[in-house]
Prior knowledge:
Helix content: 25-40%
Number of helices: 4
Order of helices and strands: EHEEEHEEHH
Strand order of the largest sheet: 1-6-5
Strand content: 15-25%
Largest sheet: 3 strands, antiparallel
Structural class: alpha+beta
Distance between the termini: 29 Å
Radius of gyration: 15 Å
Amino acid sequence: MSGMPKETRYIVFSLGETEAVLRRGLVKLKRACPPGRLRCMGARAAGFVFVYDGGRTVQLAPAELFAAVLWHCQAHHIPIAHQFEKRFEILGRQLVLVSGALAHARPAAQAIGGPAATDACALCVAEGRSCPVDEVAPEGAGDVVADPPA
């Protein structure tokens, strides 16, 4: 016999929704938000890199990104379980907050607490150009980022 079934929840933010999360979060963190549209994002050893039009970047530590997501979810009445472990994944052009018994969660191509990140985001590959995320945090800089606070 095994124990209780495990629950894992995914909250998926599109590129546009991620831009809104960052806009609100950067204001609350009293940091400047670059002009233009969010183009791509990546996970690196020091945290997350978000690239806007013109190659302007914003780097956030996991705790800062979690705070920004939490503020956004509270403003839009999106419930987040308090007792679950949490981590972020970047899947192509989507930011994903994964919560639950994460030892049983599926692995991801680009995950915090998971395997190493890919070298380029899906958008840059599709457009046939180098990924600005790699220019900010070159390959080999360390891709796995610690989990945000529970």
